Amino acid sequence: MNSNDFCKNIPNLVSSFIDPDRLIAVGDLHGDLSKAQQALRLAGLIDAGDRWSGGSSTLVQVGDVLDKGGEELKLLYFLEKLKRQAVKDGGNVITMNGNHEIMNVDRCLHSTAPSGLQEFRNWAYWYTTGNMLMGQNRFMIRFLFLHVFGLVMGWFKCGLKCLGLKKLAKG
After folding, report:
1. Is the predicted pLDDT of residue 35 greater than 90, yes or no?
2. Could you tell me which of 37, 40, 116, 123 has the fewest CB atoms within 10 Å of its CB?
3. Integer Cα distance of 95 and 59 in angstroms
4. Could you give the CA distance from residue 71 to residue 54 in angstroms, rounded to a whole number?
C-alpha cells in the first residue's frame, strides 16, 4: 500500500491548499509573544493593535510554539485569534506541530521553561475551577427552576382558590 492509498481513506484530510497570493512561513517562536508579534508586524501580517492586516496572505507557522519562553498559551491563543481574523479577510493561518509540541505530548518537558509550566498550571487550575463551577451552576439552575417554578405554581393555585376559581386551581 502506498501513502496515497492510505490517505484517501482518512476523512477531511487536507493535503493541499489553493495557491495564496502571498505565503509567509515562520517557525521556532518558542513562547515569545512579543518577538512573534514583532516578526508578524515586520512581515505586514498584523497592525499596531496586533490584528490581522495581511489581507489574503497565508501565514504558515511551521512548529515550535512551545518551550523556552514563558508565554506559550498566550501565543497559542494569539495564533488562533489571528486565524479567525485572517479567514474573515480572505487569508489563512496554518499552524503545524514541531518537535517541541511532539515532545510535550510525549511528556518530555526538559526544554520547557519554568514560567511556561506555571502558565499551564494556572490555566489548568482556572479551567478545572470553571468547569466545577459550571457543574454547580447547572445544578443550582435546575434546583432553583424546579423550586421557584413549584412555588410560583403553588402561589398561582392559591390565588385561584382565593378568587373562587377552584376548578382551574385543580389542574
Report:
1. yes
2. 123
3. 8
4. 23
Known catalytic residues are 100
Rounded to whole angstroms, the Cα distance separating 67 from 86 reads 26
What global pTM score does this model have?
0.63
The number of angstroms, rounded, from the C-alpha of 7 to the middle of its chain's C-alpha atoms is 27
> How confident is residue 129, by pLDDT bands cut at 50, 70 and 90?
confident
Could you tell me the three cell numbers for 63?
512548529
| Cell numbers given for 129 | 475551577
